Amino acid sequence: xxxxxxxxxxxTRASVMIPTKAxxxxxxxxxxxxxEFSRRDPRDNDILIEILYCGVCHSDIHQARDEWGGxxxxxxxxxxxxxxxxxxxxxxxxxxxxxxxxxxxFVDSCRTCPSCKNGDEHFCSGHLSxxxxxxxxxxxxxTQGGYSSxxxxxxxxxxxxxxxxxxxxxxxxxCAGITTYSPLxxxxxxxxxxxxxxxxxxxxxxxxxxGVAFGAEVTVISTSAKKEADAKRLGAHDFLLSTDPQxxxxxxxxFDFILDTVAADHDLNQTLSLVRRxxxxxxxxxxxxxxxxxxxxxxxxxRAVAGSMIGSIKETxxxxxxxxxxxxxxxxELINIASINEAYDRxxxxxxxxxxxxxxxxx
Length: 363
Ligand code: NAP
Ligand code: ZN
What we know:
By secondary structure, this protein is an alpha/beta fold. About 25% of the residues lie in helices and about 25% in strands. The model is unreliable at about 1-10 (pLDDT under 50).
């Protein structure tokens, strides 16, 4: 045991199987409802986090409504978690009781595959334990997400949150933030680049903030004319209404990169027409139906279509530290848990400005 750790706050036998209040999807057709369950037994390397806020990602909706297939119920969604460390295991060294921490889209990985060894746990080829709708490394215990009062997680899969930022607006950084930060960094998008952000929702509005912070010329490409003023307020230099065929034609071959954050079916060939020769369309949105790409959309300008999924623990920490240094947070609407089903319906209609965040004190 680490002698510097306070005795109080360390797990004891009495603290195992922690009863937890939550909201869950009981099946793909019903609305989310109140749910109680026990968190798994904490281990020596675990921390127990009292959850304060949890963002609402469109992936929560896709999975709660089983739009991707394979969902397991009952399901407590939520992978944009911020909270305070309430207890620690005897071998924990990275976090102390009282620290502000975050948990994103995964809570463990195999730690032995080449991706894990390389610090790219999110691409784990053993077994990636997603934060919910997944199983722990024991391949048995279901994981449950952040629409809940507390969570037990290995200390190495929790992120440090610097004090000073508005905590409820930090929560969406754990998914919407890293999912847009990571590809922009990977493809080195910045000064001298024209970046199109397709879809101004939770991911899209973070992509605008990061694109601007990295020095790119950013255009929001949206189906919602009424979002133009917001796009500019968020820092975008330009706005393109994707439902206006003339405007789309005028913008042909304009972008070095387009980051596609759209959650619904849409025409990728039209989107590709906006990408310049040798440019790249980066997919992060995962609509229920697989899109079609015509080879002519690619070969005639040597365009590429790429994809990116969340980010590693190291990169997520880097992103959180970047946000703390630059004062970047999400634009949020704080909701009570009782409003979650209405929030889902509004998000499905593209009506969110720009992330719902649950105040878990209302559970
Ligand atoms: P969101 O907040 O609901 O935003 C999606 C945006 O898509 C909407 O605001 C809307 O923007 C646009 N859209 C265009 N047509 C639409 C339609 N028919 N219905 C609904 N929206 C439409 O969603 P999000 O949380 O940002 O997530 C976006 C997608 O990324 C989801 O598919 C999600 O599963 C996926 N995702 C992927 C990763 C990853 O690792 N790759 C991580 C997180 C989420 P406009 O009004 O501007 O058109
Ligand atoms: Zn997400």
